[in-house]
Amino acid sequence: MRLQTASLDCSRYKFLFLVNSRGVDFAGLKPLPLATDGYLFQKNATSPILAIRSRRPVRMSETTEARLAQLGVELPSPAAPAANYVPYVLSGNQLFVSGQLPMGADGLEHVGKLGDDISVGEGKAAAKLCAINLLAQAKAATGDLEKVARLVKIVGFVNSTADFTQQPQVINGASDFLVQAMGDKGRHARSAVSAASLPFGAAVEIEAVFEIA
Predict the structure, then answer these.
(1) Does residue 18 contact residue 5 with C-beta atoms inside 8 Å?
(2) Taking a C-beta distance cutoff of 8 angstroms, is the pair 130, 174 a contact?
(3) Which of 25, 75, 118, 137 has an alpha carbon 20 to 30 Å from 11's alpha carbon atom?
(4) Bridge-partner residues for 133, per DSSP?
């Protein structure tokens, strides 16, 4: 039987969270269905909340690594900095990842300018590749992507002409992928802005902030 526990103190109650693959006998406790996926147990309506039991176990397919495998994505070795900076900084429970370019197995991909010689579709592919590199840096920083509590924000820079206005659609290439890979904890705040040029002529560059558990 798999059992994981974690506790959280608050002003009135101490909560005990139980995730159990086969169920636990909470003798003497009254199960109250929750709107979320689980049951709340307490002896009566005025007693402290004693436990929450999940209706289903956490499955491996729900991890970021498993989702990546299902998507056919293998994280690359994280790219080395191109100038005088570090690839990421961990400050408190926040991980700041420097801007990532669309680096593939053979080097920089998707070079050019949106609104000129790069289509929106290719720009979205570039943004997705930037997002893959963001996750590679996050894994290098934490050692385990399950230590990432959530993606807080990304900022996407699109190398584009002055009259190009589809930056949000381009950065959707990253946002859509990150939600696919991370689930709900991949939903994030975002900025998508135009840039007159980007390093090495890249079509897209994206930076990110993660919360670490």
Answers:
(1) yes
(2) yes
(3) 25
(4) none
Strand boundaries in 60-203, DSSP class E: 88-91, 94-100, 103-104, 107-108, 148-159, 189-195
Closest CA to 151 of 113, 117, 180: 180
Per-residue pLDDT tens digits for 131-168:
999 999 999 999 999 999 999 999 999 999 999 999 99
Burial of 192 (0-12, 13-18, 19+ CB in 10 A): buried
Name the 3-class secondary structure at 147. helix
Q: Dihedral through CA 62, CA 66, CA 68, CA 69, nearest 10? A: -140
Q: DSSP letter for 111, please.
A: B
Say how far apart CA 22 and CA 188 lie, in whole Å: 34
Strands (E), 21-85: 30-33, 38-42, 51-54
Backbone angles phi, psi at 71, to 5 degrees: -85, -5
The structure tokens listed for 71 are 């998507």
- Per-residue pLDDT tens over the stretch 98-130: 999 999 999 999 999 999 999 999 999 999 999
Q: What Å distances lie between residue 83 and 79, 87, 108, 155, 171, CA to CA?
A: 12, 10, 16, 20, 24
Task: Report the C-alpha gap between 175 and 156 in whole angstroms.
Answer: 10
Kindly state the DSSP code that residue 81 receives in the 8-state scheme: P
The arithmetic mean of pLDDT across residues 33-61, rounded, is 47
Q: What is the pLDDT of residues 65-100, one digit of tens each?
A: 999 999 999 999 999 998 999 999 999 999 999 999
